[in-house]
Amino acid sequence: MLTPDMSVWTGRVDAADGPSALRWHQMVKPLTPGCQAGIALIGFACDEGVRRNGGRVGAKDGPRAIRQALANLAWHQHCPVYDGGDVRCDDGDMEGAQARLAEVVASAIAAGHRPLVLGGGHETAWGTFQGIVSARPKATVGIINLDAHFDLRADEPGNSGTPFNQVAKWCAENGRLFHYLVMGISASSNTQALFDRARQLGVSWVPDVMFEPRQAEDAFNRLRTFAEAVDVIHLSLDLDVLPGSGMPAVSAPAARGVPLELVESLIGVILDTRNTAAADVVELNPVHDIDNHGARVAARLVVQFASEWEP
After folding, report:
1. Which of 124, 142, 123 is nearest to 133 (CA)?
2. Residue 156 phi, psi (nearest 5)
3. 17 domain-assigned
4. Whether pLDDT at 215 is above 80
């Protein structure tokens, strides 16, 4: 079990308003053996995959930035939230860090918690997925990725653009079907080779242009149909699915993106299925944040998880 740095959980105390005026920093506790089932925040302080992929590094500091943005928010949750510490990658051994993340995720699931992994680059997802299949070896796992990119690159060694190709290879080697749905795909951000690979692998996707009032319901119906066909869901949220105007703090800001209110609705529909085993929120890069806007958006989405994803 990791040792969290609880010094990040500081903020305002409204003592005069009594026990109903609590904030996150007063309620988040360290994750310890035997604690009541809740949301386990697990950091993946790694952007080695982004570096290998030629992106803008800095996402390794994302987990701390999200916690700092959460700390002073008002507490309205009914479910406990724990800080499970950070898996770090300070030596370039991304594969070793992903294996350690998998162990932490699997342990959290086994203890009845809902692991919410704070990335880090999107290489985070390969570690999260391995943790799910370790904890639920007989379950059919469906991946729902809210992302402008397929992240199906065939590069070796792996990087932030390869996690779901690695999952596809694992499925083929283990006699499993590859269940993968991507919502928010930007045609201009994915080469024809990636679209061809997605078709070959049987991937389903919804382009960003479908998230308009006249078409959005079709996208939501496709999401519900996908969720009904699997036992558990791995929900991966790449913050670059959001418009770059509101989320510049990522490696590859989106020119168009999917509006925040629709991303929140998508998360709500997924969590309503009650079969999400683990989730990750990735790619926040504080180096490119503007007045902490990106961190605050990421924190708002974490609050949604904590409010709607109860064990």
Report:
1. 142
2. -130, 130
3. yes
4. no
Q: Which structural domain, as residue segments, surrounds residue 81?
A: 6-308
Question: How many domains is the chain partitioned into structurally?
Answer: 1
Quote the crossing angle between the two packed helices 62-71 and 293-308, to the nearest 10°. 70
Average confidence score pLDDT of the chain: 96
Is residue 1 assigned to a domain? no
Domain-embedded: residue 47: yes
Which residues lie closer than 8 Å to 185 by C-beta, 6 or more apart?
A: 147, 148, 149, 150, 205, 206, 207, 208
- Which pLDDT tens digit goes with each residue over 155-185? 999 999 999 999 999 999 999 999 999 999 9
pLDDT band for position 310 (50/70/90)? confident
Q: For residues 310 and 79, is the Cβ–Cβ distance under 8 A?
A: yes
Please check the confidence at residue 265 and state whether its pLDDT lies above 90: yes
- In angstroms, the CA 29 to CA 304 distance is 18
C-alpha distances out from residue 273 to 16, 116, 221, 227, Å: 40, 17, 13, 7
- The answer to the question of residue 129 being in a domain is yes
The CATH number linked to 101 is 3.40.800.10
